[in-house]
Amino acid sequence: SARMISVIEHLRVGGIRVSGVDSKVLMNDKVYRLNETIDYELNIRLTGIEPKALTFEDDHGAVYTRNF
Question: What's the confidence (pLDDT) of residue 49?
């Protein structure tokens, strides 16, 4: 959805650490791990962490990848 894309595009990503199942992302001054919810209103989860891309999914199955 347009709201999901807006939320993801406005995340301030401070760092990405790719380390298998222990991968982490620093966004909006908070550390997130795989499958953590980043937005409870839209129920957006962080489902993929790569060195140059983050993947998100909502509870409707919509997937969005943000590349860096």
Answer: 97
